[in-house]
Design goal:
- The strands form five sheets. Strands 2-1-5-4-3 form a five-stranded antiparallel sheet. A five-stranded antiparallel sheet has the order 7-6-10-9-8, sandwiched between helices.
- The longest helix is centred in the N-terminal third of the chain and has 55 residues.
- It has 620 residues and is of the alpha+beta class.
Length: 620
């Protein structure tokens, strides 16, 4: 096909039109792509902005502080949490103040030393330090700071990034526990590691054993001198057994030698405590019961040397657990022959044995009430013996009771019947474990820490005590409660006294109480350690021994009077005098029944009101 001169312009115009249309289509496509990309960028920016807002909120409101320091120690960046702790604003802090200016004086010196060491090339990766912030609004906040060094070109120190944790509550509780252990009188506390080396040694340990904390720390018991190497190996084996089973040892008594060479007796318990890092430590708590042991020995000596009073101890099956010399004389059976045997194997026929076991059951059902009975038994020597028996139940090992029986021979015409009326002594054994109630109060008298035994004494859950004052806890339990001793201790004056306390179950207990103020290095009161030692058993034992001595004195002097007195009137006069003078009775009187007249005639009397009997005699 050939184009004419007339068609060429037309074709050219068509080409231009086509190109224009293609250009418009191309521009529209580009514009659509730009709009789509712009929308995507806008959405991405909104997402990034929202994420940045969330990250900023998280950074500023996490329950820990963050800050960055430059090479001069000036704060360059800090989150809102730490700003609140510091009591300042971002404008006043960032780029203006050194972090060290917010620390208490003793912590500031420690921080400067650490910062200079890091500037000189020290490594702070993961390094944790404990510091105290300067007081803000009456609160001294204790913080744990973990830092990472920031370096610039060539590894030059450029600053430091730190994470700050508020550990005030944990540190205060730890300080309270340490103060309680350090100031707990009469309770020696030691901590040991797996190798048996001492990690903690309180003041009472020094008082009990004689070795100071400096002499004990980091050493094994044989290195200290308290144990032999063989005993130390046995102790380490015991720690390994506790670590394996997770169970501690029940309280037990053992003998020991002090640094000065003197001997003693301990009541000890040993149990594990896990540390946060998974390490297990072992806590040993000791109470020196040497004096209690000596008191028991004196009581045993008194029982064994009491003339005329046969004393035996039995279990539920009437098996002999103790047999004093007077019992040997009464029944003709030695201690070796009697120990560990039932009474039907020794003296009783089946009927007598059944009656005696039922008698013990009645005493047990009566709890602490004493039982009195009369019995006639044929002794091993062939003599029929009539005794007046008095029994009581005392705590034994575990849940098994012990029945203590006291018997007086009334065979000879019941001439000595009055002796059983004078036997008002109930034997008891000193409790194996000494109760200790511990608590720690802050300077305002609020409970910071308490042990379960102290809460049991008060009849309240431990969690309900924490944070409440002594007055709030006690007034809620006892209307009108007051304690000048606690107020004096919170004034910084140590207190030591004895007091009575009624438990929630209605039982009254006697306590020896120690209130020890806890003062800081400047003498400012931080709190008070409260220690209550249950001395109820000790008080009861002292009273019972006193009464037993009275009985012993009466019996001994009357026995002596029987030997030296030749007529009934003199014997009666001597008996009345002994009952008043040695037995502590206000008045003693003896009368005889005249069968012919049915009248009781006064034979003898003694005491402050003896003139009353004389007047009666004159007017009748």
């Amino acid at each position: 096909m050939y184009l004419t001169d007339q068609s060429a312009p037309v074709l050219l115009l068509l080409a231009v039109i086509v190109l224009a249309v293609l250009q418009l289509l191309w521009n529209r496509m580009l514009r659509n792509r730009v709009e789509a990309s712009t929308a995507e960028l806008r959405a991405a920016n909104q997402t990034l902005s929202a994420q940045a807002t969330r990250l900023s909120d998280l950074y500023n409101n996490v329950p820990c502080g963050y800050h960055s320091l430059d090479a001069g120690g000036v704060i360059t960046e800090i989150n809102d949490t730490e700003l609140r702790w510091l009591g300042s604003t971002r404008e006043a802090v960032e780029g203006r103040r050194e972090f060290v200016t917010f620390l208490a004086s003793h912590s500031a010196d420690k921080f400067r030393a650490m910062f200079e060491r890091l500037k000189a090339g020290g490594d702070a990766q993961g390094e944790e330090r404990i510091f105290e912030l300067a007081e803000q609004g009456g609160l001294c906040r204790i913080v744990s700071i973990t830092s990472t060094v920031v370096t610039g070109v060539g590894g030059v120190f450029a600053g430091m990034r730190s994470t700050v944790y508020d550990i005030t509550r944990q540190e205060r509780a730890a300080q309270a526990l340490r103060a309680t252990l350090d100031n707990t009188p009469s309770v020696a506390v030691q901590w040991f590691n797996q190798a048996g080396r001492v990690c903690y040694w309180n003041k009472a340990s020094t008082e009990v054993f004689g070795w100071s904390e400096a002499e004990a720390m980091g050493r094994t018991l044989d290195e200290i001198g308290l144990y032999t190497p063989g005993q130390t190996r046995g102790f380490v084996d015991a720690l390994q057994e506790i670590s394996r089973t997770g169970r501690g040892f029940e309280p037990a008594e053992s003998s020991f030698t002090r640094k000065d060479g003197s001997e003693g007796v301990l009541l000890s318990t040993l149990f594990p405590i896990p540390a946060p890092d998974g390490t297990t430590y072992f806590v040993c708590m000791d109470i020196d019961v040497t004096e209690r042991q000596r008191s028991e020995e004196r009581l045993r000596a008194t029982l064994e040397n009491t003339p005329g009073v046969a004393i035996q101890w039995f279990d539920r099956e009437a098996r002999v657990l103790y047999w004093n010399p007077a019992s040997e004389m009464l029944y003709g059976l030695s201690t070796d022959e009697a120990m560990g045997k039932r009474m039907d194997e020794l003296l009783y026929d089946p009927e007598q044995y059944g009656d005696f076991v039922r008698f013990l059951r009645e005493v047990e059902r009566g709890q602490d009430a004493s039982g009195i009975a009369e019995a006639t038994v044929k002794g091993r020597h062939g003599v029929m013996v009539t005794v007046m028996r008095r029994a009581c139940m005392v705590p034994g090992i575990g849940a098994e009771p012990i029945f203590a029986c006291m018997e007086v021979d009334i065979t000879d015409g019941r001439a000595l019947e009055r002796e059983h009326e004078q036997l008002n002594v109930i034997l008891s054994r000193v409790t194996e474990a000494v109760p200790v109630c511990l608590s720690y109060l802050d300077a305002e008298g609020r409970y910071v820490w308490t042990n379960a035994r102290n809460a049991t004494r008060l009849g309240i859950e431990p969690d309900r005590m924490i944070g409440r004052t002594v007055r709030e806890v006690n007034v809620a339990l006892r209307e009108g409660w007051q304690s000048p001793a606690v107020e004096a201790a919170l004034d910084g004056k140590p207190q030591h006294d004895e007091t009575a306390w009624q438990h929630a179950n209605g039982e009254m207990h006697a306590y020896e109480r120690f209130l020890v103020p806890d003062l800081d290095a400047q003498g400012v009161l931080r709190g008070c350690t409260s220690v209550w030692l249950d001395v109820t058993s000790r008080k009861e034992a002292e009273n019972r021994i006193h009464r037993l001595n009275r009985v012993y004195a009466v019996l001994s002097n009357i026995n002596a009077a029987l030997v030296r007195t030749k007529n009934l009137r003199d014997l009666a006069d001597e008996a009345c005098r002994i009952a008043v003078e040695y037995g502590g009775f206000g008045v003693a009187w003896i009368g005889l029944l005249d069968p012919a007249t049915g009248r009781i005639n006064s034979l003898s009397w003694a005491g402050e009101d003896a003139q009353v009997f004389a007047a009666m005699e004159d007017t009748t």
